[in-house]
Amino acid sequence: MAASSGGYLSRRIAYIDGLRAVAVLSVVVFHVAHWDAKLGPGVLQHAFIEGAHGVDLFFVLSGFCLSYPVLRTMHARRTALFDIAGYAARRVVRIVPPYYLAILVIACGLLIIDHAGWRIPEELSVARVTWFNMAKQVLFADRRPEFLNPSFWTLAVEWRWYFIFPLVLVLWTRSMRAFIFVAACCVIAGAATRAGGFDLPILPAFMLGIVAAEIELQQRPVGRVAVLMCILAVCLGLFLEPYYAVGYFLQQQPGWQLAAFFFVLAAGSVPSLRAALSVRPLVWIGVASYSIYLIHEPVIGALEYNTQIPPALAGAVAVIAGVAFWAIFERPFMKNPLKGRLIAIISPLVARFATLVGVPSSIQLSLTTGGDKPKLPDQPSSKEMQTETLLHISGA
Length: 396
Fold this sequence. Notes:
Blueprint: H1 6-34, H2 43-49, H3 54-77, E1 79-83, H4 84-115, H5 131-138, H6 153-174, H7 176-192, H8 199-217, H9 223-240, H10 254-269, H11 271-277, H12 280-287, H13 289-306, H14 311-330, H15 338-357, E2 362-366, H16 387-391
Antiparallel strand pairs: 1-2
């Protein structure tokens, strides 16, 4: 599909996968440090734990990759028909099967480890997860759950975002001011109130991904500015950490969200950075990043809790295990014909449900946020809009 979309889109897919690799490897570093009992408090531990902000990068990339194919068509044709039923079906096929299989594999693996006599950290123990908690995870509910894998919390947040993504995209195309107002309200609500749990304060990261896709499609030379702003945003994130004393590494902090946003812009605008992110090893890791994210933490926790292997080696084993999981369990759902058959089955069901509850089956979008834009090369066909699935960041 990348080859059929022309050089421009192929180049984008390469470095976007590189960004996915950076995001998931950062999270792996965080969990390596989290489970390393020998790594005491200090600057080094703090630096490693900041790897949790790879999740912020995942969130920005998620908004970028969902919006990019639609915005590309709108820039080329001034309008695009957003198929809600097809979009929902693709999200289900892309996210749900690997997630459910990860739950099964992790549960079986932890039970085998327990039977073999290895110690299991309380945070990863299967015994603490009741059937009710398991059902909540299957339904992407995260109200005070006991996750089988603590990393699963991001999937519930993203799942809810998928429902509001069409509305956010419409807002962006209709009124930039309203879009900025909503993002600002989310930041204020997250900082000053407890409204919305994680969803509201994290939503701006998702919205920034849409802005990044728009800037990239306009092909603006923002490289140097983006690098500088990324550095300043990291400094802002570090400056704000004392005000987030409980969980400074969590994803509701605007400084780190802005850092991820400007890093994405820099990756697309600085040729040397884009080339570095497009090297094959990073691209391969990026392609498997969802699977790596799904299973890496239990692997790291079990190894560091029960063996004397170096923490870095535990992280490497977790990445290899994630790639193996991708090859066996995720890859079949990324390629036709299985993916196509599942989408063909689910899409009509979603359309009928949407009709039943009074939701339109499609939305006509028109680009009005920035005046006339030049057409991009290699105008996409309707088939090429399916690159949404290829570009999507689903980890987290």
